[in-house]
Specification:
Chain lengths: 330, 181
């Protein structure tokens, strides 16, 4: 082989390698999620809003590195198999990598808190420490770090909203703990409201600082916006219930378990019933988005509000793709 | 004369993207317009049509930046927007593979009945996302509805987009896509 041909071949190989390395993060990971998560796959056929896969952020590796670095600094784990960076990379695929990284860090914190509440020695004390900022648990330091970065550019109104939603999660977890201690489970009627609390309602507030925008208070209070957030929360929480049920070993705070008990259904039918409810809530979410009072806002603000709303509308599919590939509930 | 018309239309297209009135636009501004359109119809970016729109807008920005020889994260001024749009989609060959699919995705959003037609209400919903008022949207609809049926076909909307963004014919109905110039 002469030198010119050899150089051309090597350039082609390098180019192909670069191409593979570039595209690798954009491809889906093998399905390492819980087998239970595959029960959610019919939603892709049934729900038009979940029909197309989320795009993956082109800088997903950089987002992963940012999360690992932050987790090490704050004393938390960042298990690559769980892949919060990939959930955030999907939810914020069209925005800058810093937005996705910040959201992934919050997800890492939230799921650590969730684990601590489920399995830690003094679960609610950890929560109290976060609320009061007085303890020494790594979760508290991590929270303080994230709060400093996140809240800096937000109004007092947004900060109050976040604090109220943190308190809501605390109350909801308290209720769950009391139920477990008393051997009780919520009813189908009570569960959605309780679940909106345990899921971490401030997670939905975090979209705004990640996108560097703020939804006007009157829009946030409006019925369509509340319905948009609540339906998004219900969809992702109930999908999570389907995927996590085997790992929770019969805990009664799960929509599938409650449907089985209260409606007298077998597991398969109960999952089908939950998928029907998820499908309904997806329709509710689209209807709520259509009713948002965008025409009453200045054009620039309407665009900002639309970006936040779009992140909510994309969340169910981003979450589903993550459940199918993440080892968290496997 | 014809180039003045095209520049006038492209200036308005720039204003559609520059909702905050910064005098420059970036990729997030264009995606913000896409988000505003989607929310007007209650459409998710993860539906088939929504996904096509987001991908289409993203590709339009990539082509515009490439035509200007810039990275995609660089702001674009009004003057450069004109130059880039003309280079990529009017004189260049990128309209058919890049702009057209995005126009189809937007037009499909207006076809709520999946019957190939868009009524005046859907059209006004679309134009509200671009910042066009009720009266201008009604005037635009009447001008585009050349047969007087009271509905537009998806194909007519797509053709109007091509007229608007690339055409230099002052008589083309598509010049009225966003109301009187």
């Amino acid at each position: 082989m002469n030198t010119a041909v050899s150089t051309t071949v090597m350039a082609s190989v390098r180019s192909a390698l670069r191409s593979v390395l570039h595209w690798k993060p954009l491809l889906p990971l093998p399905r390492r999620g819980s087998r239970a998560a595959t029960a959610l796959l019919p939603l892709i056929e049934r729900v038009p809003a979940m029909a197309a896969p989320c795009r993956m952020h082109p800088a997903v590796y950089a987002i992963e590195a940012a999360v690992i670095d932050w987790a090490r600094r704050t004393g938390l784990r960042a298990d690559p198999g769980v892949g919060f960076h990939r959930m955030a990379g999907r939810a914020f695929a069209g925005f800058d990598a810093a937005a996705a990284a910040l959201f992934a860090q919050w997800l890492t914190w939230l799921f650590h808190l969730d684990d601590e509440l489920d399995e830690g020695p003094c679960p609610l004390e950890v929560f109290q420490g976060v609320l009061e900022g007085a303890g020494e648990h790594p979760l508290e330091a991590a929270f303080a770090d994230l709060w400093r970065v996140t809240s800096a550019r937000m109004s007092d109104h947004w900060r109050r909203r976040f604090a109220v939603n943190l308190q809501r999660q605390h109350h909801a977890c308290h209720t769950e703990a009391d139920n477990r201690a008393a051997g009780e489970t919520p009813t189908l009627a009570d569960y959605p409201m309780l679940r909106r609390g345990t899921v971490g309602p401030y997670l939905y507030d975090l979209v705004e600082p990640c996108l560097r925008v703020e939804v006007p208070a009157w829009v946030h209070r409006s019925e369509p916006w509340q319905e948009l957030v609540n339906s998004c929360s219900d969809i992702t929480a109930w999908c999570n219930d389907v995927a996590s049920r085997p790992k929770e070993r019969g805990d009664g705070h799960n929509l599938v378990v409650i449907a089985m008990r209260e409606l007298g259904l077998g597991e398969r039918d109960a999952i089908g019933w939950v998928l029907d409810r998820i499908t309904e809530r997806c329709r509710d979410m689209g209807r709520a988005a259509r009713r948002l009072p965008l025409d009453d806002l200045p054009p620039g603000t309407a665009r900002d509000v639309s970006k936040v709303a779009c992140a909510y509308l994309a969340a169910p599919r981003a979450h589903l793709d993550w459940l199918l590939e993440s080892s968290r509930y496997a | 004369m014809a180039i003045d018309l095209l520049n006038q239309k492209l200036d308005r297209a720039f204003d559609h993207i520059d909702a905050a009135g910064r005098g420059v636009v970036d990729r997030e501004d264009l995606l913000g317009l896409g988000a505003r359109i989607l929310i007007g119809f209650g459409e998710s970016p993860t539906s088939v049509t929504g996904s096509a729109l987001v991908d289409g807008f993203d590709r339009i920005w990539a082509e515009l930046s490439a035509a200007l020889g810039r990275d995609e994260d660089v702001d674009v001024s009004r003057e450069d927007f004109r130059l880039g749009m003309i280079a990529a989609f009017v004189k260049g060959d990128r309209y058919e593979p890049v702009f057209h699919p995005a126009a189809v995705a937007v037009a499909n959003l207006c076809d709520r009945g999946a019957d190939g037609f868009a009524g005046p209400q859907e059209f006004r919903t679309l134009l509200a996302a671009f910042g066009t008022g009720y009266d201008a949207a009604t005037a635009a609809f009447d001008r585009l509805d050349t047969t007087g049926r009271g509905v537009l076909t998806v194909d007519e909307l797509v053709r109007a987009a091509r007229d608007y963004y690339t055409g230099e014919d002052p008589e083309a109905p598509g010049n009225w896509l966003f109301g009187p110039l």
